[in-house]
Design brief:
The chain contains 20 helices and 15 strands. It is an alpha/beta fold and about 450 residues long.
Length: about 450
Amino acid sequence: MINPESEMEPLKLYFIHYPTAGHMIPLCDIVTLFASRGHHATIITTPVNAQIIRKSIPSLRLHTVPFPSQELGLPDGIESLSSLIDDIRHFPKVYHAISMLQPPIEQFVEQHPPDCIVADFLFPWVHDLANKLNIPSVAFNGFSLFAICAIRAVNLESSDSFHIPSIPHPISLNATPPKELTQYLKLMLESQLKSHAIIINNFAELDGQDYIRHYEKTTGHKTWHLGPASLISCRTAQEKAERGMKSAVSMQDCVSWLDSKRVNSVLYICFGSLCHFPDEQLYEIACGMEASGHEFIWVVPEKKGKEHESEEEKEKWLPRGFEERNAEKGMIIRGWAPQVIILGHPAVGAFITHCGWNSTVEAVSEGVPMLTWPVHGEQFYNEKLITEVRGIGVEVGAAEWTTTGFGERYQMLTRDSIQKAVRRLMDGADQALEIRRRAKHFQEKAKQAVHLTII
């Protein structure tokens, strides 16, 4: 049994991350935990992702396999779904390229077999490879265990797929789960049962012991909560600022701006690396924020506001004069933001989030309540954990569940609904104070969990 908390001889461990920021970042953080225990931990990655990891966590041991960019006609530097900022037409090619990583990884592992492989659950072939080599495999799952239980419980044949009654907290979703997505995730979750156990980037108090018991009882599978990952690594502020990718804004500039603001007065708005809204929705966000009167940091795609963007193009997503009117009240970051640094600043009072699990657990780790705006993947399940089960957030009102974060959207959230949600959490009413109190409670539980994990 491979248990990171037991005393044993050093093990040779391989870790294989899925090439997107929300999966790579937490797994690399967790690798530092195993390395700190003296185990020989190696991350199998690709050249560009290796550069990112080395910048963020220089101490980690890496082995690179080539990314088949040239074979598929991909531009240099694109080795991750998170890299598709300007041209989403490459999405299918990157998916195909990721599948082509299997042979070179298998060849390396077979030639230099480890004691155990820890791989993202989206690489189900790893468990068959480990079985062939007669070594254990562990699945890393970047979802909450709550979401895993909910996905497994979804009845695709039911006419009422909004309602999930067969989990410890029966929930009603705000949108219908896309059938193809649910089928795919169910298949991946079934495949992960071939592994010895799953590692979750979370702590038991947030998922809840009832969900740990429910999962283990219904699957016979073991779970290890090793998180929050963002609290595991002891790093400098600059390394935290560049966690995942190089920040588009100077950490010093960001912190200096936040230092000038009152405690809990700033709203942080970010939808992760894979959620790209159309211009019309960005425009409504800008109008809603301005109408709310609250200060904000807003992360938008890198291509927005570039030098080549004309005033006419800019006014498709940003009201005329918006940046001038809000020069003191708002900061717009175009590209990657130092999210952990921002969330950890006392001036930040709430987080509008897509409910990606990495962002969610980072907010919880810093005691920041959330305004939930799920888009795709398992995010609508996470929304219910945040708002209904744990009571640490408020729903903005998203009701369109897409398979990916890119592409057309048919339902816009209006400036009025955005403004109302912001004021509900930021204006200091009794409900908001209770939500903030619970968020601080789970922050303390997160710190305690990581302290027990790393000692």
